[in-house]
Each structure stands twice: as structure tokens, then as C-alpha cells.
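Amino acid chain
________________
===
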Amino acid sequence: MNCKRIICAVLCAAMLLSAGCSKGKGNNTEPTEATYEEVTAELGQSATYGGMTLTVDFAEDPGIRIDDSGNNVMFFHVTIENETEETVTASYLNNFCLTVNGTFYESYECCTIPAMKKLYDTYDVDAINAEVQPHTSCEGYVACEVNPRYDLIDLHYIPKTTDRASRITVTLTQENIRKTSK
């Protein structure tokens, strides 16, 4: 048994030492830096990436707090146009994420069930959640949890959930977000 362990340890060590060795073979690789392929727009303007167009028609801060997290709810009314030849899913749970005051939040962290419940409790509207056929559009709401002390919010739309590095970003500030009381 000890002999097998020694042989395995020697083989593993040899494999680890030789991994990545390419001296003289001409296939050296240079480290790469991950970057986002990003298109930006302002509130009310449209931006297109990969055949998908996003317009954030308005953003609303209704002053509603989520008790469990201490965050406020923010509602974004969006229109998505599919200019591709394939059916695309547009979902508030998968295609949207936020950066708030420089901190990035994935969909599951900001587009929460409590935030959507507050949307349904406040308005009789639909959340964005549709199969968008080629050359058609859909509209609806994205409800997110946001730190109540926000100054700058980037709403990111990721057209293809399999490509998280490509996105459309709309920047929002205290000045262009509607403040309402519900």
C-alpha cells in the first residue's frame, strides 16, 4: 500500500513540475486580462449589443424598504428589442445585475423575490420575463434591492447569459431616478 502511495506521489510531482513546460517548443502563452465588452447608454436612450437593444425608460425609487435586508427597492421599466434571427429569453432573474456605488451585485443578489413581491404589491404590472421572438420586442419591470445610500447605479443587461462579459450598461444617479412615495 505504501509503495502505491509513493509511486502516485512521485508521478504527481513529476506531472506538476512538467505542467506548462514549453521551453523551445514555440507555444508560450502570455497572461491575458479579463475585460468586459460593454455598450453604454443613458436613461431613456437605446443601446444595442449582439442584436439586442435595451432601453431603460425610467427608474423609480418608491421609498419602500425590505425589512430583512435593510435595502430599498428600485423599479426599472425596460424595453428589449430582439433584432436577431433566434428567440431570446429576457428575464429579470438572469439577464440583469447591478453595480451600486462601485460594488457589483449578480442577479441573485439584487433581483430578489422580496423585491419582485414589492413590485407586485405596489403596481399591477408585469416583470420582464419573456421569450422574445425574432424582430419583436417586450417590455416590463425589473425590481432590485439597492443600498438606500446609493449615489451611482449601473444597471447591466446581459443579452446572452452564457456570455457574462458582454453587456449593455445604463448609468443612473440620484438626479435621474424618480422619487415617489407608495
Helices lie at 2-18, 107-110, 113-122. The mean pLDDT is 85.
